[in-house]
Fold these 2 entries.
Entry 1:
Amino acid sequence: MVLDAHQHTNWHGYDAQRLVGYMDENGIDKAWLLTWEERDGGLTRWYSYLDPYAVEAAWRAYPDRFVPFYAPDPRRPEAVSIVREYARKGFRGYGELKVRIRYDNPDAVYVFRACAEVGWPVLFHLDVPMGPGSPWYGGELEAIENALRKCPETVFIAHGPGWWRYIAEEQDNELGDAYPKGPVVHRGPIWRMLEQYPNLYGDLSAGSGLGALKRQEDGGREFLITFQDKLLYGTDYHDTQHLEHLRSLDLPEEVGEKIFWRNAYKLVPLQEVEG
Ligand SMILES: [Zn+2]
């Protein structure tokens, strides 16, 4: 059983049908489908609106394969009521949150608390500020700690280069590289945070998640075993790099199961639990 906890539809040329084809080919049973909604996102050239209507249509077409998520921009005055409305509709989580505000912003905090009320985890993208014009999302790590403390009932799932760079103290910061590649010599602050906050999880998707594992001498094996109850397999794309890397590490069977699907099922319980 494999569940991809970070996937999109109408993304990089994959509509729902083509996405199911990719999943079938690679033995991926289910995927969380995430939106990207940023009120003023159109002002950045890399923005692409991933709307809840496409997510809903994909889920209705393939109800056994997709789990629908929607993250309305927290700055919308009606954001909290949208969360409640979509929860009633059958959506299961808030994500992907990728908005150019600090995530301890009061509007975001109200939305996170509403998510706890309806039983939704919050999956966020973090990119820390790296100078003028840099595409930051969420603010510094400090904003995440504030949100964790202000919303202890809310489950947060961390994702993105701004999060995973902190696998190490060493970050090649002088190069301004959002994807540092040097080896992990000293463990960075996310080790402490994953240990300290029971409501914090990590999504291993994309180059950032995989890179954080590969920066470790053992390919991240010890990290994965240490945080086996808090890490989720995901891709964000349509390749098999994460599958191959995780399978190459010869993880204990129960650790693999947790990362590949059990942790996701714990956060978003689905009716049929398959072996
Ligand atoms: Zn994504």
Entry 2:
Amino acid sequence: MADRKPDIKVDVPGLVHMLYNQLTILSVVIILAIMGYTVYITYLDAYYQPEPDQPVAAAAPAMPVSGIVNGVDTETGLIAKGNWEIVRANCTSCHSAKLITQNRQTREGWQGLIVWMQETQGLWDLGDNEDLVLDYLATHYAPEDKGRRAPLKDIEWYVLDLTAAL
Ligand code: HEC
């Protein structure tokens, strides 16, 4: 019993054959992967790249002239004087500056609009800027048409001497 060796047979040619099969499958997978990757970088990747001889910026539309032209800020249309930048900062985030430039108000009128926007439209408290904004608006967007002139006052009336014409 003790000198009996376990009867283990190793099928060497069978093992070699199995290894060989697995190596063949592995190399086919690797070759396919390399081919796939090559196809990807040469065709698909290039498909999404701009043509090298077409500069990307060429398609962008020409930028409009920006800045201050003839005293008017071309971006907002605001008269670029005095405190205009404070007005731009506080008055153009909700609506176009056109609402301002197409409007004419006295200082009181402008203040009324600001109060209305604060009460109903969520305009914030302008703090010290309110006076600066009102200075600007009342100066540059004041009522143009004053209508009839104010009645004359403190006039020294005289009687026309008709005999002088004879
Ligand atoms: C928080 C948002 C907001 C801000 C900031 C704002 N407004 Fe307004 N404003 C509005 C809304 C909303 C209206 C109504 C718009 C409409 O009728 O289409 C309006 C309307 C106006 C109008 C037109 C009023 C009318 O009679 O039709 C003027 C003028 C105006 N705003 C001026 C200003 C000025 C000046 C400032 C800066 C002090 C300012 N807005 C800042 C929200 C705002």
